[in-house]
TrEMBL record:
This is GMP synthase [glutamine-hydrolyzing]. The active site is at residues 78, 165, 167. It comes from Lachnobacterium bovis DSM 14045. It comes from the Bacteria. Residues 192-385 form the GMPS ATP-PPase domain. Catalyzes the synthesis of GMP from XMP. Pathway: Purine metabolism; GMP biosynthesis; GMP from XMP (L-Gln route): step 1/1. GO terms for cellular component: cytosol.
Length: 521
């Protein structure tokens, strides 16, 4: 394996992820980790990440000179590169020109690190210090217009320093460079796969949990489902999953979750389904204000989970499906700085009697979680589920929520998703297996609180209007309406009007985010 030493940069998990993409296993450790421990792990290579400090200042994150004398190849990235040079006798100082963004770099591709990389290549720079003099025995192997040392090597000792960020996708040939390091220089064979993650994590859970009891709140979303799958494979019935069906799930979703994790499902665990729809509807009766609705739904979940936890009694571990982006957003990501707090992390339920928290997916990105899910035998439609908010249909029904409205929006939404999926599949089949550009990243029906007049047969109707939402987005922070083909929308409209009682009008929501949000409330 390769180990990544974390000096607090924002892209550190990305480094690990790119290494895993080369099918080489890798783990991240803080720069404070003892050298003895690193030696004991006997890694095939070491990568030093970026970080916010200036290595020539006192109290900056540092490493010992011995790290470079173990005979293990070391690659320093950005701060890691500067630190390597600083520790080995080079000079690092404030750069006259701060480089930030896509930058043209000239590389010496006779170096093993840059084998098969173009001589002129675009790389992602982000630094205010620079290496003004390389350490003895180092040779410069890349430069930019403003940065004399964009990369340096001591090939005899397998020490490499890169000022830019190969882990960021804007560095066009970055993955190749990392692959050259882990395979060409460290000699890793690249046979690691996601199933190794699954197997290793199962072993780790077994060891950690022993004969203890674990409690998990299962939402039916991708993350908690994959966490449940892993834990179940590791400890079977020592795991109890509580699934609260708040009556605000999509059509049939509660039953789908039960069919995977329940008694007749694919996993060995204790599955508790709480059918709490009536409780929620009672609490939500007459409530129209969006924030109030969200609050009621959240609080009711805590109350129900607490009741179930009390029935179970003390447990040793509370499991959570926290994934890496949740950790970074909460500012708990290793050494990196706080960005924003996140609802999944930090706010631990203090009402459950447990000793320790267990988060088996903490190092993974979403697409890696999905791969692990498939590996565990979780059905594809669950693994590729689109995001669904915690408050569920409660925030897709504008105004008061009740059982009838829930059913209306569930039925309309099911038709909409079915037709969009069908059209996307057909398009794909006709276009070399490529996804259509209009395929939305999130799409759903929402029930407006508006009623209008229509005519059905010879009868006057006075029914609700449904709004179809479909957005293209990368990070869910900004979004644009997806251009679903008009014929598809027409089919959806006519099916909804004909099949869903209570709806006589269909709108398509064109609003971008900002100013709109993706959800309506
Ligand atoms: P908005 O509506 O804020 O949605 O543009 C952005 C993304 O977040 C999801 N979302 C939520 N997810 N709990 C969640 O777990 C929530 O309360 C919540 N509100 C919005 C939304 O579905 C979209 O993907």
């Amino acid at each position: 394996k390769v180990i990544v030493i974390d000096f607090g940069g924002q892209y550190n998990q990305l480094v690990a992820r790119r290494v895993r993409e080369c099918n080489v296993y890798c783990e991240i450790y803080s720069y404070k980790t003892d050298l003895a421990k690193i030696k004991e792990m006997n890694p095939k290579g070491i990568i030093l990440t970026g970080g916010p400090d200036s290595c020539y200042l006192e109290n900056s994150a540092t490493c010992s000179k011995e790290l470079f004398e173990l005979g293990i190849p070391v690659l320093g990235l950005c701060y890691g590169a500067q630190l390597m040079q600083h520790v080995l006798g080079g000079k690092v100082e404030k750069a006259p020109v701060r480089e930030y963004g896509k930058t043209e770099v000239f590389v010496d591709n006779t170096s093993k690190l840059f084998a098969n990389v173009s001589e002129k290549t675009i790389c992602w720079m982000s630094h205010f210090d620079y290496i003004s003099n390389v350490a003895p025995e180092f040779k410069i192997i890349a430069h930019t217009a403003d940065c004399p040392v964009a990369a340096a090597e001591n090939a005899d000792k397998n020490l490499y320093a890169i000022q830019f960020h190969p882990e960021v996708l804007h560095t066009v040939e970055g993955t190749k460079m990392l692959e050259n390091f882990v395979k060409g220089i460290c000699g890793c064979n690249g046979t690691w796969k996601m199933d190794s993650f699954v197997e290793r994590t199962i072993e780790e859970i077994k060891e950690k949990v022993g004969d203890g009891k674990v409690l998990l709140a299962l939402s039916g979303g991708v993350d908690s489902s994959v966490a449940a799958g892993l834990l179940s494979r590791a400890i079977g019935k020592q795991l109890t999953c509580v699934f609260v069906d708040h009556g605000l799930l999509r059509k049939d979703e509660g039953n789908q979750v039960e069919s995977v994790f329940g008694e007749n499902g694919n996993f060995d665990l204790n599955f508790i389904r709480v059918n709490a729809a009536d409780r929620y509807y009672a609490k939500l009766k007459g409530v129209e204000e969006p924030e109030k609705k969200r609050k009621i739904i959240g609080e009711e979940f805590i109350r129900i989970f607490e009741e179930e936890a009390k029935k179970i009694g003390a447990v040793d571990f509370l499991a959570q499906g926290t994934i890496y982006p949740d950790v970074v957003e909460s500012g708990l990501g290793g050494e990196s700085a706080v960005i924003k707090s996140h609802h999944n992390v930090g706010g631990l339920p203090d009402f459950v009697d447990f000793k320790e928290i267990i988060e088996p997916l903490r190092d993974l990105f979403k697409d890696e979680v999905r791969k692990a899910g498939l590996e565990l035998g979780i059905p594809e439609d669950l693994v590729y589920r689109q995001p669904f908010p915690g408050p569920g249909l409660g925030i897709r029904i504008i105004g008061e929520v009740n059982a009838k409205k829930v059913q209306i929006v569930q039925d309309a939404d099911a038709i909409y998703r079915e037709e969009v999926d069908k059209a996307a599949k057909e398009w794909k089949a006709q276009h070399n297996n490529e996804n259509p550009s209009w395929k939305p990243d999130q799409y759903f029906a929402a029930l407006t609180n508006m009623r209008s007049v229509g005519v059905m047969g010879d009868e006057r109707t006075y029914d609700y209007a449904v709004a179809l939402r479909a957005v293209k987005t990368i990070d869910f922070m900004t979004a644009e309406a997806a251009e679903i083909p008009f014929e598809v929308l027409q089919t959806v409209m006519s099916r909804i009007i004909n099949e869903v009682k209570g709806i006589n009008r269909v709108f398509y929501d064109l609003t971008s985010k900002p100013p709109g949000t993706i959800e309506m409330e």
